[in-house]
Structure formats: structure tokens, C-alpha cells
């Protein structure tokens, strides 16, 4: 069956081809509403769809957007980044092309070359977690980095404000009255930048509260529920006067492990131990017993921001610094005051310095 042409629409609507072109391209200032309706009805009747290739040649825009990621498409954890990007692309009449590379440099290079060869109107380079990356060769100017930052700068980028998130998590526990607060951190060969930033936020709030940091309360294990269990066992084996009454976990999976270890020791959450997670991971944070208070990673908001910048509908920062997206607190039921019987470490109190 032959493809419907613009002349077919003009014949059915009883107007010129130039009028059809103006209506279908949204340039309707001098065309009556009745004529516009007639043209659109005729286009539907004959099954006309615009030739995107021809329109791209005329406008120098293909109405497409590329997104190259490492593992996002295969993990439900970060899928909200894709959802946010897709929403913006749809709102602005663009088709989103996604290439998931699984971290393969060769696949990544091929994807960048293919998308630029297709002349996409914008490109987003995304990572599974907040980290510093080397910009791949061949990226077009204006490429936006999502949940990562280029090592040498030069591109707009959006990342979660992990330092502020660490502050907010620790402040929740300080404001609940806790003085012995542990940070259950991630232990990996190449720990993500988020690990250090969240720890910095943790230390800043302890300093503000006049709490002496105890090195024994900063423990590192693998980023999993098993790692959280092992961390909690180590912390619970400390002498009573050094044992934490509150835990800030690098992520919600580790917090789930903390719950298991605490319950095995007969501890109630939050009666005996308060816990704050990070990520607000679906099917984890809200399903724990009790539901976990946590810091949400703003995946959808970052996906939207990156896509808006890539399409030119939002301006990036002018100082070549990454945009820091706020990480909201999600209040649930895992934070309470410290147990009344908890001993206070000697020498700890307001005004105490590290």
C-alpha cells in the first residue's frame, strides 16, 4: 500500500498543500480553526504521517534523543531515571533512543557513534550510581551527564547532593537525641564518590552537635544485606559504653541487614536502635518491619533535568559545576529516641571536639 502524501490530505480537505503543511507543522496563525480541523480530519482519514527524515532535513532536527547508560535499563533500582527522561522526551515531541552498554567500552563507543550519526537532537550519558567518569571519545558538544560527572568537566551534569543527604540523615538521629551514631559504609575496590560525600555530611553534623566521632562507629562492608548484617554484628560486639544507639546506612540494602542482625540480638527498632537508610529503594525501604526512614535518591528528577538540558529547554549552571539535586527525607517508622538505659560515653557532650 502506497504511503499517504500531503497532496492526498489537501485533496480530501479541499485546501492547498501549503495550507496542509502549515497546519501539520503548527504554524496556524492565519488559518481559521474550522480549516485546521478539516485538515487534521483529512490527515486521519487518509492515514497521513509526517516523513520524519524529510522534516529533519528541513528543520535540522530529528526529534530524537539518545541516552547511553551502563546498567540502568537492567536494574529496577534506577529505572526512575529512564522514566523521568522518557516523560520529558514525550512532552517535547521526541523519541528516546536508549542503549544499555553493561559497562562494555566497545559497545559504548559504537552507541555514541551510531547516535551521533543519526543526528539526535541531544545526548544524555548516564551512570548507575554517582561517580566520576572519563568522557567517551566522540561525544557531541552539549552532552549531559546523568548521575555522574566528567573527570575533566566541560559538560553539564546532574548528580544527587549526597553530602547534604548525609547531613540530613545524621541530623534526623541527632535531633531524636542520639549521641552514638554509627555510619555503616560501603567497602569496595573503587567506592563510589557518594560514600565519601555521605560520610562528610555525617561528620559535619556530629561536629555541629559537639559529638566526638568514634572511629569504631565507622565500619565498611560490602554493599548488600549480608554486609549490613556483618556490620551490625561488629557494632553490637563493642563495649556497652561505645555501642551505637543509632545507625546511618550507606544504602537501604545494608539497612535491611542491620535489621536482621538487630532482631537476632533481641533489639527493637526503633525502641532500642534507630536506623536511617539511603536510596528509598523500591520493594526494600517501605517493606521492612518497621518501614525504614531513608533518604531518597532523586532519580526521576535527575532524569528530567538532564533531558530538559539536552533538549535546550533548561539552562545548565554557568560555572561548569554539576547541578546538585536535593535528596528528600522519607519519614517512616525506624527512628525514635535512644533507650533510656543507654550509657553516655565519658567525655562526650556539647562542646566536645574531635
From TrEMBL:
<dbReference type="Pfam" id="PF00356">
    <property type="entry name" value="LacI"/>
</dbReference>
<feature type="compositionally biased region" description="Low complexity">
    <location>
        <begin position="343"/>
        <end position="354"/>
    </location>
</feature>
<keyword id="KW-0238">DNA-binding</keyword>
<keyword id="KW-0804">Transcription</keyword>
<dbReference type="Pfam" id="PF13377">
    <property type="entry name" value="Peripla_BP_3"/>
</dbReference>
<feature type="domain" description="HTH lacI-type">
    <location>
        <begin position="4"/>
        <end position="59"/>
    </location>
</feature>
<keyword id="KW-0805">Transcription regulation</keyword>
<dbReference type="InterPro" id="IPR046335">
    <property type="entry name" value="LacI/GalR-like_sensor"/>
</dbReference>
<dbReference type="InterPro" id="IPR028082">
    <property type="entry name" value="Peripla_BP_I"/>
</dbReference>
<keyword id="KW-0678">Repressor</keyword>
<feature type="region of interest" description="Disordered">
    <location>
        <begin position="316"/>
        <end position="354"/>
    </location>
</feature>
<dbReference type="InterPro" id="IPR010982">
    <property type="entry name" value="Lambda_DNA-bd_dom_sf"/>
</dbReference>
<dbReference type="InterPro" id="IPR000843">
    <property type="entry name" value="HTH_LacI"/>
</dbReference>
<protein>
    <submittedName>
        <fullName>LacI family transcriptional regulator</fullName>
    </submittedName>
</protein>
